Amino acid sequence: MKGFFIEKCMEFCICIIVIAVISYVPFLFLEGNTLSFTTFLQKLFIPGDAVNPMTMRQISFWDVIWEPYMYSGTILLVSTFLTVVMATCLSFGYVLSSLKIKKAIERCLVLIESIPDLLLIFMLQIFFVWVFKQTGLNLVNIYAFGSKQAYFLPIVTMSIVPALHFFRIMVLFLLDEQNKPYVEFARAKGLSRKYILFVHLFRNVIYHLFNHLQSTFLFMISSLLLVEAAFNINGYMSFILKPFVLNPVTVARWIFLLFIPFYVVFTIAHFQVKRTTGGLANEK
């Protein structure tokens, strides 16, 4: 356990250094940049430092970023949770279903995956507009406008494609695990397919799934800007496109706000997964 956290702390420190460097270096090539690297590091960790918007008013960076950060962070976290739940339910249903149902599921997956993200978003928006015109019920907000915030559709659209990819990965691991000798032994003892799947198979593949979940999460972050633009969300990703944000200090802080919380969350989750699957014991 001690070696695990030492490794993660070293990895965290290296990432912080790399983020600081890549946030500063591109601005060296801009005309009029007089900010030295030492001054950059000093300003980076001063909480009261401010940014100057186009209105020339001094506004604290944290006051400007906090609301978009919480908005986009909520969408991202709920989408990740929904992705895992959808993929897990689909994979369990797929493994336990008959061959005919498996083929039907595969056809549906191919159809959904062939739809571009923007077209999928547009179709969902049109569908709820049609529902509103037919019934008069405004079930969800299809756009964020003023004080109205859109949550349901952005979360759903961000979850569908990653859930399908994660489902395919989960099925591959589960089917591969089914060929192990201990599964045959468990069946010989009279254990049901559901019990073997839920208790043994899933526990043995969860470590590998967690590694793929991290890459799936990065994919979801990359699609967050598209979702914010499609739903008119003044969110965290679109914040970086504002003109007054483009300076080394705000860019570095912007990346830190994305990297640090989720790195901590994934480190804790990684520790729990390794402890559950016996990985920490094997490392000793």
TrEMBL record:
<feature type="domain" description="ABC transmembrane type-1">
    <location>
        <begin position="69"/>
        <end position="269"/>
    </location>
</feature>
<dbReference type="InterPro" id="IPR000515">
    <property type="entry name" value="MetI-like"/>
</dbReference>
<dbReference type="Pfam" id="PF00528">
    <property type="entry name" value="BPD_transp_1"/>
</dbReference>
<keyword id="KW-0812">Transmembrane</keyword>
<feature type="transmembrane region" description="Helical">
    <location>
        <begin position="108"/>
        <end position="131"/>
    </location>
</feature>
<feature type="transmembrane region" description="Helical">
    <location>
        <begin position="251"/>
        <end position="271"/>
    </location>
</feature>
<protein>
    <submittedName>
        <fullName>ABC transporter permease subunit</fullName>
    </submittedName>
</protein>
<feature type="transmembrane region" description="Helical">
    <location>
        <begin position="12"/>
        <end position="30"/>
    </location>
</feature>
<keyword id="KW-1133">Transmembrane helix</keyword>
<comment type="similarity">
    <text>Belongs to the binding-protein-dependent transport system permease family.</text>
</comment>
<keyword id="KW-0813">Transport</keyword>
<keyword id="KW-0472">Membrane</keyword>
<keyword id="KW-1003">Cell membrane</keyword>
<feature type="transmembrane region" description="Helical">
    <location>
        <begin position="69"/>
        <end position="96"/>
    </location>
</feature>
<feature type="transmembrane region" description="Helical">
    <location>
        <begin position="216"/>
        <end position="239"/>
    </location>
</feature>
<dbReference type="InterPro" id="IPR035906">
    <property type="entry name" value="MetI-like_sf"/>
</dbReference>
<feature type="transmembrane region" description="Helical">
    <location>
        <begin position="151"/>
        <end position="175"/>
    </location>
</feature>
